[in-house]
Amino acid sequence: MKLVLLSGGSGKRLWPLSNDSRSKQFLKVLEDQDQRMVSMVQRVWGQINACGFSQSSYIATSKSQTEIMRSQIGMDVPLIIEPERRDTFPAIALAATYLYTYMAIGLDEVMAILPVDPYVENRFFDRVNSLEEVLLESEANIALIGVKPTYPSSKYGYIISNKHNDTAAYRKVQRFQEKPTEAYAEELIRLDALWNCGVFAFKIGYIIQMLEEKGLPIQYEELAKQYHTLPEISFDYEVLEKEDNIVVVPYDGYWKDLGTWNTLTEEMKNPQIGKGAISEDCVNTHLINEIDIPVSILGLSNIVVAVSPDGILVTDKSASPRIKDFISYNQRPMFEERQWGWVRILDDQQYDDGRTVLTKRVGVKEGKNLSYLLNSDRDEVWTIVNGEGEFIQNGNYMMVKPGNVLHIPMKTMHGVRAVTDLEVIIVQSGLQNDTNRIVELYSTWDEVAHYCVKI
């Protein structure tokens, strides 16, 4: 069985820490057993590795998330790259064609789908592993995992199945109910309904046949070219609700979707991350602060205060799920984690005379490098503020250290490699109406050193 983890999300539900380039699964707000701060994706991949599934697992993610994914879980984890975000049905279809085309997986091979960010015990993955046997034994087209509800939630979808048999490994699914009222959820729980946790399995041939029936390519490269034409629809709506032959495997262990601030803070071991103070009379209050300005919270209970370069959120925990519909700020991500380090926007100004000036702080990890590239319509001034590095500009090599100021005119090739952890303040300027293009010549430092240094 092949396990595919879906990594998507628009970055709004945990604003301001999450944004379009850093979705919720990449926020380092959880602690591992060694008390290190880890993200949801790091935690889940660690569990998959501990359970022995990493050699048969893949992560399906959008092109925009590739760098941060590599940064957090390493270069060796196999990624299936979506050209753009288009919901779960297109993502799963593309993943199936990838396994079929490049991994030579047969049509009878079982493929399991798992969100990249569930908060579960390790034994949950034993239940995932059982889906293959259940699928084959039941002769169903799809096998799901359903979580035994712990309260009548209106946030989750429900799976309604035939009468529960304690000795059976699975049940026949009758229908689905999407996000009922709490009153109806209580009735569903009395009927022994289960939460739909988004985990399911099917034979790869099931999706390949579906693509053929829809007149879509079954080869990965061809489907990727047509990806923008696929419907933006979830797998639940496009497939599950139309399929009659589905079974569900009950799971009665711990499971939680950490999709909102109130559910996420329930699993944070420390009520405070970052600079600031919470007074002793605050109850069930959390502070997450990613900037250097201290934040003080006095006499307020049941709230979350989240601070990042993207903005500030102060919310009652019960109201926090509304943030996705409330936030509509049209701004670029102010913090991005990259494969080679990170970028923080300090200032972004546009002036009456048509000039635009962008100031950012860039961190490059030891041994990593920025590509050798040029800006078509932007001048840059770099000030080295920490660490040492190798800098090349139009073939001229020099070592750089704190205090060095580098002027890089537009259309000038340049790149840097960090000898130690390197930090640079970059001021980029140009005319607002001139569309800046970035032209990259080489991405690895070996290529830059070999081809671009004047002798």
UniProtKB/TrEMBL annotation:
| Gene3D superfamilies cross-referenced by the UniProt entry | Jelly Rolls (2.60.120.10), Spore Coat Polysaccharide Biosynthesis Protein SpsA, Chain A (3.90.550.10)
Keyword Transferase applies: yes
Q: What would be an example GO MF term here?
A: mannose-1-phosphate guanylyltransferase (GTP) activity
List residues of the Mannose-6-phosphate isomerase type II C-terminal domain.
350-438
Q: Which keywords label this protein? A: Nucleotidyltransferase, Transferase
Q: Does the keyword Chloroplast apply?
A: no
Nucleotidyl transferase domain residues are 4-269
Q: Which Pfam families match?
A: MannoseP_isomer, NTP_transferase
What is the top-level taxon of the source organism? Bacteria
Q: Name one GO biological process term.
A: GDP-mannose biosynthetic process
Q: Which PANTHER family did the record assign?
A: MANNOSE-1-PHOSPHATE GUANYLYLTRANSFERASE
Protein name, please? Mannose-1-phosphate guanylyltransferase
Q: Which organism is it from?
A: Paenibacillus sacheonensis
